[in-house]
Amino acid sequence: MIYFIITLATLVFFQGFFPVSRPSLDFNNDPPDEVNGVRLNKNEFYSSNVSKTIFMVIDALRLDFFNEDYMPLTYRLVQNNGCFNKIKVETPTVTLPRIKALTAGNIPQFVDLVLNLFSTEILSDSIIHSAVKAKKKVIFYGDETWIKLFPNKFSRFEGTHSFFVKDFTVDKNVTRNVEVELQKEDWDLMFLHYLDLDHIGHVYGPFSSLIPEKLHELDKMIYEYYKIFRRNENSLFLITGDHGMRDIGGHGGSTFHETNVPLLLIGLNCQSNTFRQTDIPVNIAALLGLTIPSISIGRVQKSLVYSTVEKYLYKLYYNTRLLVTRQFCSKYEEANSYYIDYIKNSNQSSAHKAIEFYEHCLETISDTLAKSSVKQNFHYLIVSLVILLNCLVSLLLDILGSNENKSVFFQYVIIFTIVIQYLIENNLYISSLLFVVYILLLLRNTRTLCSMISSNFSYYTLFFLVFCFLHPLTFISSSYVEEEHQFWYFFNTLIFLTQLTIFSKSKNYLGTFYCFMILVIFRFIRTMNATGDKWLNHPDLSDWFLKTENFHYYQIFHALSVIAVFLTQFYLINLKRLMLLPLNLLILTLIFVYKNNESSMLGKLIWLLIFINFLLTYKISKIVTWNLVLSLLLKPYNLILIPYCICSSLIISRCYKRTNLVVLHHIFLSNLLFFAQGHNNSLASVDISIGYIGLTSYQPILVISQVLYHTQAFPVLCHLLIFHQRGSESIKIWKLLFCSRLYIFIITSVITVAFRHHLFIWSVFAPKLFIEFTHLLFLFAEYIIYKINEFIVTKFPIYRINHK
Questions:
Q1: pLDDT tens readout for residues 108-118
Q2: Which of 143, 214, 294, 422 could lock 193 by a disulfide, CB 3.0 to 4.6 Å apart?
C-alpha cells in the first residue's frame, strides 16, 4: 500500500512541477486598425510582397555546421542575397517542443520532452494557423510530428518517421515531393523537415565522416531548390535547425552546440543578428503579413522586418499590443502617445521615441515571459512532498522495528483522501483539515525516528548512512549535480579500499586479491566513458575503440567481454542445468554478430531466443535472462560492466553479514554503474538509438521499453543480485530500496522547488529531478513485476524451485 502511495504522490508532484499546458481557443490577435481611437491603415502598413515561402528545418543543424567548407553553395547564396542569424534555443532540445517554439513562438513546457516520444499534442495557435486563416495554401513534407501537431492544416503533405534513427536515407521521400511541388504554382508556404542529419548524429556523433557528406548533400539540394524557386518574384527561403547536437552525439541537454543553431534567410534584404528561437514566428508573420500567434512571446527584429518607418512602427505596435495583455509595461502608453503624434504630425523625433519605447517594452516583456513560462502548482508540490516525507519516515520506522508506528493505516487513509481531494474535488476546507492532522502525525513519527537511529546501527552502518544522507544534499550546488559520478566513483573506491585493508590485516589473501582486482578493473572502467559536464567532451577509451584504425582491437575487446559474460552465466546456471549453456552461448554469439552487422531480422531472432531462455531458466535465476538482455542493448565496449557488477556483488555478499549493508552497497554499485555506462544528469545522455534493435519502424511502446531497459540496466541487475543472495528478506530489501530512492527524490524535489528561479533550473536541476522521478517510477514497476512473480510462484507449484 505504501509503495502505491509513494508512486501516486510522486505523480502529483510531477504534475505540479511540470504542468501540462491547457491552450485557450479564445484568440484576439488580429492586426489592429486603431491606436487609442486613432485609425490606422493596416492594409498599407501590414502588407507583404512575398509571393512564396519555403521554411526548411534541418533536424540537429548545429551552428558550426553552417560554414564555407560544409555548405559552400548555401554560404554564397546567403552572402549575396540574404543574412545569417544566430539563434538561441531553449531547453529541452528535442524536436516536439522546438517545433512548437518555431511555429507558435512560446517556450514549451519541460514535460514536452515526454510528449516528444508520442507526438500526440495538437497546437492551438501558430504561424500555420495564421496562414490558413489568411487563405494561404500550406504544404508540408518531412517529420510526421508536424502532421500530428497541425491536423487538417496542410493542403498536401507526406510524413516521415522521425524516431527510426538508424535510417539515414529517409530524406529522399521529402526531396522527391519537393521536386514535384517546385513545378507547381498553387501553394503559398512550403514547410520541410529533414531528418537524416539528426539520425547520423544519434548513431555516430557530429564528428563522423558521414556528417560532411550529408551536409554537402543538403547544400546541393538547397542550391538546386533555390535555382528553381527564385523564378517566383519576391520568394523567401528560410533554413534553420530545430536544435543542435552535442559533441558526443544526440541532444536533449543544454550545451552550447545543442542550444545554438543558424537561421538563414535567402531572398531578403536583411542584416545578420542574434535572437531567440521564439522570435522566429513573429518575424515570419511580420514578413508575410500574417497574424502573430496569440501565444507567442517573441518580438520583431528590426534587422529582418524593417522597410519604412511607418511599417516598422506598426509592426512594433502590433507586437507590443499583444504582449502587454500578458505583462504590464510602464512605457507602453507613452509609446502610443508618440506613435499618435507621428501619425498626425509626421514628427520624426516622435517616431524615434515610439520605436525606442516599443522596443524597450518588447524586450522587457519577452524576457519576463520567457523566465516565467512555467507556473508550478504549489498546492500539489507541498501536499505531495509532505506525503512523501511521511512515507519515508514510516518506512524507516518499519525498518527499525518500531512498535510505535501504530497509526499507519490511519495515515494511509488520510493520504489517499488528500490526494483525491486535490486531484478531483479540490475541496480546500477538507484538505486543509486533513493536512494539519497529517503534519502532526509526521512530527510525531519524526520524533520517534530520531530517538531510535542512534541505538539501532553499528558504526559501519552509520558510516554508510552518513554518505547516503550527505549525497543528495550536495545537489544544492549545480556543479555537484553535473559531476555526481565523482561522488560514486570516490565512494566505491573508498569502500573497496577499506575492505582490502580489513582483509589484508586479517591475512585473508584471497579477499585481498579480489578487492585489489576490483579496484584495478574499476580504474580501467573509468577510462571507458567520459561523463559529467566538465569531462564530457574529453577523449575516452570508447572514442579510441570507435576509430577505424582501431577496429580490430575493438573486436578483440568485444569478444573478450562476451566471453566474460558467458563465464558469469556459467556461474549463475547451476550444474544440474548445464544443458542451458549452449543456448546462452548461441545467443551471445548471435549478439556478437549483430553488433557487427545490424539486421532487424537477426535482432528479432535474438529477442525470441532470449524469451525462450527466460522460460527455460525461470526457476533458476532471472539474472541469466537479464544479462542476455543487457548484452544485446549495451554498447560493445560497455559489456565489461556486466561481469564487473556480478563480481563486485559476490565480494559484497562475502564482506557483510547484515542485509542492510548488502542492500546499501548494491545501491551504491548501481549508481556507480549508471554513470560508468556513460549516463549523466542530462537527458541528452539517453541513447534512443538503442530502442530500434529488431525494429524496422517506429513503434513507441517497444522503442521506449528498450530505451528504459538500457537506461535502468544496472539498477535492475543490482536489485536482482540482492534478491539472488538475500531473497528470504525480500520485505526488508524493498523497504531499503524505496527508502534510498525516496530520500534522494525528496531532497532533489525540495532543492529544485527552492531553485525554481535559478539560472540553471531547466538545464541542470529539472533534468536531475526528471531522472530521479524515472528511477522511482521504474522501481515501483520492478516491485509490481516482483509481486506478479510471487503470485505465479504461489499459485503454480511447478515454479517454486528457486524463484528468485
A1: 766 655 655 55
A2: 143
